[in-house]
């Protein structure tokens, strides 16, 4: 595999001759690795729902904590992962960051088989799932330099949007795979539920071991390190002095934080608010819609030449739909609740793509990778705070209403921030 010596994606001849092919190859492998990272990151969002059914005795607060802890550690690790492609090379870090996903995957597969496993051990394994959460920042920082400015919105949308599908994949596959006995019998045997049926909870984790190994090999043999993209942490931290770094971090936290936070909390939230309805199997639809629409958000922003305008209108719909969730909760309508939540998920996906398209237009090429990574890092804290806020609201008041009111206020503030800074007619900056 030849080493890349020069990289000039803004030159049309270079891009047409070889740049586009190499960039798309790296994008494809990055997407595969990122899907697996999101799967590991969000395993607990569905595993936690089944623990008490197989003999564990955990409170609602503890269950929401298991769903939330990967968000806390994942977001914190993103602050580190952001800088790693610039230090060790994008390909090299993709190999390392994908390989370490084996640690929580194997650990969870062992731990969930015994109800005697201490909560501290379960919490530790949940925290280790944050290794998957960190990958988005490094993946974004790695892929961004491969593409010319005109294609960055679409490329970043595909990379992160399809990668986000890992959340939906794990929530769809887990209820199916835990019933497959031929895998479970090879990895420890069944657990018996309160209803007397046999399940194999360990399958939810062990099933991803071989795909992770394959992804590591694909990254090692198929990806490339770009020249002139390595930077010290100090060189990358210069973006912290730019006010737009913090404005975009606020906006990205609003959309991606909501996507990943709702994804982590949605199965438990459905079970808590509608205990008499078997709706948990529909939880995967939210992340599926949100992730699928992320590339569209970037593409639309490229077409209308304004990520800010797309973000503004999408957040307006998102705020209204969140109010709709409250309305249907008050009326005990699961159908209305689900539809409104799916609209919110759709809006998070579209605005994820549109905000990521804004950043390359606000910063020069070398800085935009760091800003993308940093905003993704802080935005990921939504995966911790949203489940915790829902858990607090339910424990304190008996319902999710207070949590939803908090989110509505946050979205309204975000709408004003986006309008004033970027989307109004006389805004100083156009993106």
List key phrases describing it.
1% strand, globular, 75% helix, two-stranded antiparallel sheet
Write the layout of secondary structure elements.
Elements: H1 12-41, H2 43-51, H3 60-81, H4 84-88, H5 90-99, H6 102-111, H7 119-128, H8 130-133, H9 135-143, H10 149-177, H11 181-184, E1 191-192, E2 198-199, H12 203-206, H13 209-222, H14 233-236, H15 243-273, H16 285-304, H17 307-330, H18 334-362, H19 365-379, H20 382-397, H21 401-423
Helix pairs in contact: 1-9, 1-10, 1-13, 2-3, 2-10, 2-15, 3-7, 3-9, 3-15, 3-19, 3-20, 5-9, 5-13, 6-7, 9-10, 9-19, 10-16, 10-18, 15-18, 15-19, 15-20, 15-21, 16-17, 16-18, 17-18, 17-21, 18-19, 20-21
Summarize the structure in words.
The chain has a single domain (12-423), classed as Growth Hormone, Chain: A (Up-down Bundle), CATH 1.20.1250.20. β1 (191-192) and β2 form a beta hairpin. 55% of the residues are buried. Strands 1-2 form a two-stranded antiparallel ribbon. Helix content is 75%, strand content 1%. The model has no long low-confidence stretch (mean pLDDT 90). With 431 residues, the protein is mostly helical. The chain has 21 helices and two strands.
